[in-house]
Design a protein that fits this description.
Layout (H helix, E strand, L loop, with lengths): L6 H11 L4 H12 L13 H16 L2 E7 L6 E7 L13 E4 L2 E4 L3 H7 L5 H12 L10 H14 L5 E6 L6 E6 L1 H27 L3 H5 L3 H12 L1
Antiparallel strand pairs: 1-2, 3-4, 5-6
Helix pairs in contact: 1-7, 2-3, 2-7, 3-7, 4-5, 7-9
């Protein structure tokens, strides 16, 4: 069973990940969620496996209910949404390790693959490069547009949690809106917010009672909250 992040581990993760690139943060968080794997193996996991691990850690630490928002690209209206993350963690049938497209075998992309193309500002070229990295055969010549579309569809079926997209409706203009659920950014934003709140509590209690950070974090969430309430009164 996934263990929730303690206050101390939350602060440690935030400190270690604050200056990292988003992909490196995702790898750091996934390594925390998957202590059963060697850290060097994280970058080569399928993206869907990384997403599932991050969502499991999020549910264990902050709960399964997610309240979020996105903006309508057409009119700018802010759209709120609520999501239960638990169904995304339901056990599924073991997926094959590769899929055949046009006579070529493709594996699911990984964080390492994304990192290799992250600096490419040409999205179409980056997509071709990403798929070339996922080809298991030696023949890695560029795919034409039709083959590229087929490969993308096949990889979505192979690793459906690699790119989770929510379908929303804008009540202001009636447009259909898609919101991408980025598990790494979602979890990191919550860890950062929680870490900063913890620092404020530590500062308050240290000033009020002269306790060290370790002593304050050792109180536990319930007692710490009560001390914060008394110190704030």
């Amino acid at each position: 069973m996934m263990q929730p992040l303690s206050a101390g581990r939350t602060l440690s993760l935030w400190e270690r990940g604050e200056a990292l690139h988003a992909l490196d943060r995702a790898a750091l968080l996934c390594a925390t969620a998957r202590p059963d794997l060697p850290p060097q193996a994280i970058a080569d996991l399928p993206l869907g496996t990384v997403t599932e691990s991050l969502l499991e850690l999020r549910v264990a630490t902050f709960g399964a209910h997610l309240a979020g928002h996105t903006d309508c690209a057409r009119c700018g209206q802010r759209l709120g949404f609520e999501l239960d993350l638990a169904p995304l963690l339901s056990p599924s049938l073991e997926a094959p390790s590769a899929v055949e497209v046009g006579g070529r075998l493709l594996r699911a992309p990984s964080l390492r693959d994304l990192a290799a193309v992250a600096s490419d500002t040409d999205t179409e070229r980056a997509a071709h490069r990403l798929l070339a990295r996922c080809m298991l055969e030696d023949d890695r010549e560029a795919l034409d547009d039709e083959a590229l579309a087929g490969a993308e569809t096949a990889l979505e079926a192979l690793d459906p949690h690699a790119d989770i997209v929510l379908a929303l409706h804008c009540p202001a203009c009636g447009d259909a809106v898609q919101a991408q659920l980025d598990a790494g950014s979602l979890l990191w934003d919550e860890i950062e917010a929680h870490a900063r709140a913890l620092l404020r509590e530590i500062d308050l209690l240290a000033r009020a009672y002269g306790w060290t950070e370790a002593e304050i974090l050792g109180l536990g969430a319930v007692r710490r909250a009560n001390y914060v309430a008394m110190a704030s009164a």
